[in-house]
Amino acid sequence: MEKPTNSTTLARTKSDQLVETLAAAFKSPTQSDQAPGTSDSGGTLSRKSSRRLMMAASPGRSSGGSKNTHIRKSRSAQMKLDLEELSSGAALSRASSASLGLSFSFTGFTVPPDEIADSKPFSDDDIPEDIEAGTHKPKFQTEPTLPIYLKFTDVTYKVIIKGMTTSEERDILSGISGAVNPGEVLALMGPSGSGKTTLLNLLGGRLNQSSVGGSITYNDQPYSKFLKSRIGFVTQDDVLFPHLTVKETLTYAARLRLPKTLTKQQKEKRAIDVIYELGLERCQDTMIGGSFVRGVSGGERKRVCIGNEIIINPSLLFLDEPTSGLDSTTALRTVQTLQDIAEAGKTVITTIHQPSSRLFHKFDKLILLGKGSLLYFGKASEAIVYFSSIGCSPLIAMNPAEFLLDLANGNINDISVPSELEDKVQMENSEAETRNGKPPPAVVHEYLVEAYESRVAENEKKKLMTPLPLDEELKLKVSSSKRQWGASWWQQYCILFCRGIKERRHDYFSWLRITQVLSTAIILGLLWWQSDSKSPKGRQDQAGLLFFIAVFWGFFPVFTAIFTFPQERAMLSKERAADMYRLSAYFLARTTSDLPLDLILPVLFLLVVYFMAGLRVSASPFFLSMLTVFLCIVAAQGLGLAIGATLMDLKRATTLASVTVMTFMLAGGYFVKKVPVFISWIRHISFNYHTYKLLLKVQYQDIMPPVNGITTDSGLKEVGALVAMIFGYRLLAYLSLRRMKLHSGA
């Protein structure tokens, strides 16, 4: 290769020439400080330091300094020198631990594009950018965070399965022990049903602690409410609002979760920073999307979920199968993101189903579960060595994760069987022996559990029993029982109110909904076209129209409001578990944010029907009729909210609402004039009945004789009844939500 003539040109050289060049660069008088991000803020060594030599230098001005252009500090050009052409001539793999990488960060000049293209990546750390990943490599903020050391010893968890006549107690986890420190990524592996998600929920404080055995400590302290603000938890299902954009989703999360000491502008800036850290800037104005709404891709959606949690700079980050449903490149990018987060001094625990070999080597520690029992805990890189030491090793080349999962399932095809296990099967003359002479899965599982307990478990437990050399201040912070809200009650209400309107405006102003209301109004107007209100027969016809209005605007809001809380149950549980807001602020914001949207369509409806049907053309009756309909809508909404929040099941809620609304309609005073005494009380709790009476009083308050025997008084009794229903039904809904929270143990 020709030697470069320009001082800014980097060329591949022999290894000895490369060392001399580096030595000369370090002697430069204009050498800059160490680049940010090369050391870990939590005091732990970066795992990349064991695989590459990190060198950050800024050369002085060269002879062609006038041609140099300054690059933005946040986007320093990074070059990696390929060592494929060293004297050995062979590319050394990462697995052999013999690879050598050099990373330079130049902040003073532009590197020629042809030289950047000439330098090729050589390590698994250099992940190719996928289409959806953006163009910027994530550089996670390393602001100080509270280091949390997580330890758990002999953790057990049982559930009671209730049958028709008997109850059975089943062990989900039995005797799980382990630990993870800041700067490390702990992977929980195991087949489906092995207890990975249950263990993750226990460690994250998401399950009721009353049925948990063993010890789980955070900096040697038990779980406290303070930790909710220091823990990020990414669920397996992407629980997001489909009609909000990526930027709106992260901005609302920042405003609700970041400390009160930050201003609104600082919180919004943090949201933008996270967008760039996760490579989401290209889709920040795109809606999240859902089943019926087009939006971002699966990988971007998963990164938004991760961004929702890392936006608070958590000390602990839990993730439940973050790579499920992603292609291999996007999964690798996601795990690399977790690695970068851990290097910023955070503790990361994730479940993983079946990672590729490249993903497996990125984990620091590993827990292998099988049927709720612990089969291995230790360094991920030493797992194969351990199982080989107990006589289980792959007979063919295979993915380490695949080998471990086969063992956990008891599938030992293509895996060597230890002689003592074969002897045990032969001695017992087991009838469960398979055709090829291999021991059955149950015997393999029992052997693996016994091997771990006899060889490793005791030593690991002794390490866990050793107290951490931490300051008392760190321990006291973790043990604080005081919740830390990111915003005041009023701020929470305002943020949730705005978020609710933005999310649901698409549903309320859909063409289907508008067409439904307007077409009904036009049909009613044509059927009652300019009806006569002067004759008794005409007034009787108009009474039918008024009753239909009372029924329609009692029926319509109920079946809209029923879906409110059951559909948002997953989001409510997730956000309440993270202490994003108070339940009272959410409930009031959720119910009041619907009102402006719910009251627009009734106005259009009445404008069409009122004048087409020839009702009293006067300002007072028109606006009083509109106010009556508004009261009916808000009361009916309250009933729908109460039914939905109480049952939290759409099928049962719809069935109960149908029966209730039909009963209220029949008792509304139009179909049956004389109701038996023992059932007449129903009409007094029927919003249809009170709305119908109010509409008649508004239209015929000065006309005699009264229509349908209803006296034309002031109507304060009916207004009072509707107002009582508005608050009564909503109170019932709030208490039902509070009960649901306690039941879930969130």
Count the domains.
Answer: 3
**Sheet bearing the most strands, described?**
6 strands, mixed
Name the poorly predicted regions.
Answer: 1-19, 25-138, 742-746
- By DSSP, the count of extended strands is 12
Taking Cα atoms only, what radius of gyration do you get, to the nearest Å?
34 Å
* Mass-distribution shape: elongated
Instruction: Supply the number of helical segments.
Output: 24
Side by side, the strands of the main sheet go 8-9-10-6-11-12
Describe the structure.
The chain has three domains: 150-230 and 316-480, P-loop containing nucleotide triphosphate hydrolases (Rossmann fold); 239-313, no CATH class; 490-739, no CATH class. It has 24 helices and twelve strands. It has helices at 15-26, 113-118, 196-203, 246-257, 264-277, 298-310, 328-343, 357-360, 383-389, 400-409, 419-428, 441-465, 472-479, 489-508, 511-527, 536-561, 564-567, 569-577, 583-598, 600-612, 619-647, 650-666, 687-699, 716-744, and strands spanning 53-54, 77-80, 102-106, 150-162, 167-180, 185-189, 212-218, 231-234, 316-320, 347-351, 365-370, 373-379. The strands form three sheets. The chain has a six-stranded mixed beta sheet with strand order 8-9-10-6-11-12, sandwiched between helices. Strands 1-3-2 form a three-stranded mixed beta sheet, with no helix packed on it. The radius of gyration is 34 Å and the shape is elongated.
At a glance:
The protein has 746 residues and is of the alpha/beta class.
